Every structure is written in C-alpha cells, then in structure tokens.
Amino acid sequence: MTCSNCKQAISTADTKCPHCNYTITRHLKINYPKASLGKRFAAAVIDYLLLSVPIFLYTFGYTIDRARILNNEEQLAADYNSLIYITSALYFIYYLLHDAILKDKSIGKYAMGLRVVNIKNNQRISLIDSVKRNGILAIAAVIPYVNSLYVIAEVIFILMSPKGQRIADSLLHYQVVETDQLSMIIETYEIEDF
C-alpha cells in the first residue's frame, strides 16, 4: 500500500504516513454485483401499480360521481383537470421520494429483496439521495416526448452498465443491490485510502 500524498510505501496498519506525516483515511471499497434485471423490473412494476391503480380508481370514481351530481360538462371538465393536476403532483412527489420510504428501498424493491446503496461511502441512501437519484427521471417524465426518449436511454444504460446503474446512479455513485447478497459481499472487501 502507498501513501496517496507522497507515494511512499506504508503499512496497512499506519494511520499517518511515516515519510510525510499525512493522515491516512481508509474506506471500504466494495464491488457490488449487478442486481437481477428481472427483480428490478418487477420492483418498478410494483411501485408503479401501488400509486397508479389507486389514483386511477379514485379519479375514475370521482369523475363518475361528479357527473351524476353536476349535469354540467364544463364544471365536470374543470374538476377533472384539477384532479389530474393533484394526482400528478402526488405521483411526482412519490416518485422523488420512493427509494427512501423504507429507509433505502421503495415498497417494490422491498418486496423483491433489493435496496439502493451509495457505493462511494457504502451507506444506505437518504431522502435527499432519493430526490437526487430520481429527480432527473421525474422531471423528464413531465416533458412530452422527452420522457419516452429518456426512459429508453435509461433502459439501454442499465443493460449496458456493468453494475446495472441508471444514468443518475452512475453520476451520483448509487447502485441497486440484492439484499441477500450483502452479507457475502461485506466479507470480501478491500481497504483503499483516499
């Protein structure tokens, strides 16, 4: 092992470089394996259905109920549009935060045995991390035509990435991993100094 400051050989037990007195900071470098694409797809479907189905049923039921009460097509259209905006905002907020709902996983990821980790510091992701991770895709989702192109780009990126990372994951150092593999992974790590 070498000191990252003076490049001289040091012992793995050293906390300061004996040559330049540089403080050695170590962290675990864990190479997480790529999570199953089938599990990731199933988790995404579960997350989508958990919010979409109730919103659809509520919107549909509300519209039918209001149609019976109002007999006014203009008011019904205004009510429906307001409801669409509200449900879209709820979906947008859920999508931003969903990876941190159950600490470091969405409900779909929990059901499929997956979680999101920050591979730079090997910590579970926070609420802020979830917003950063999902923000780009959430913003792209509300822009017509861009949303479809971005989703296609994300799928291609996930398939081609050796770690199965999305575009934001690669930029921000996040990775979806299988929770049952974590105990085996922690046992095989290497120490690296900053």
Written description of the protein model:
There is one protein chain. It contains 7 helices and 5 strands, in the order E-H-H-H-E-E-H-H-H-E-H-E. With 194 residues, it is mainly α. The protein has 2 domains: 1-30, no CATH class; 37-187, no CATH class. The strands form 2 sheets. It has a 3-stranded antiparallel β-sheet with strand order 3-2-4. The chain has a two-stranded antiparallel ribbon with strand order 1-5. The longest helix has 34 residues, at 37-70. The protein is elongated, with a radius of gyration of 23 Å.
Question: What brief labels describe this structure?
Answer:
194 residues, mainly alpha, disordered C terminus, 3-stranded antiparallel β-sheet
Provide the domain count: 2
Radius of gyration: 23 Å
Strands across the major sheet, in which order? 3-2-4
Question: Beta-sheet strand percentage?
Answer: 5-15%
Overall mean pLDDT:
80
Principal-axes geometry comes out as elongated
So how many helices? 7
